[in-house]
Design brief:
By secondary structure, the protein is mainly alpha-helical. Helices cover 40% and strands 7% of the residues. It has a two-stranded parallel sheet. The longest helix has 20 residues. The chain is extended.
């Protein structure tokens, strides 16, 4: 929005999970804190052994995005990620609607 008057187009790329060292080597570079043991165990259970696709598999999508004359403000990269984001957005919208009566009590 701030850069649009200068002809600069910006896209927020929201990639899914890709096989990087973030949750393997990245989490072993420091001394684990016991307060996070439960969280680490839960995340390991969620992610399992599947590291996800190679980051290079997203490159064609990013290159196509870069070539667009009118790119989107946001782009979710990955089918599973798209589905997850849609579910989160639908849940957020439902929560907004459920609490609309309270939101509208304040001016503004």
């Amino acid at each position: 929005m701030e850069m649009a008057p200068f002809g600069v187009k910006v896209t927020i790329v929201q990639p899914g999970g890709y096989g990087t060292d973030l949750f393997t080597r990245g989490t072993t570079m420091t001394e684990p804190r016991p307060e996070y043991d439960t969280l680490r165990a839960r995340l390991a259970e969620i992610w399992g052994e599947d590291a996800g696709p190679r980051p290079s598999t997203a490159a064609p999508v990013i290159m196509e995005l870069a070539g667009l004359a009118e790119p989107p403000l946001r782009l979710i990269v990955g089918g599973a990620s798209y589905d997850m984001v849609r579910q989160l957005e639908e849940a957020r919208t439902a929560e907004y609607r459920a609490w609309e009566h309270l939101s509208r009590k304040a001016p503004g």
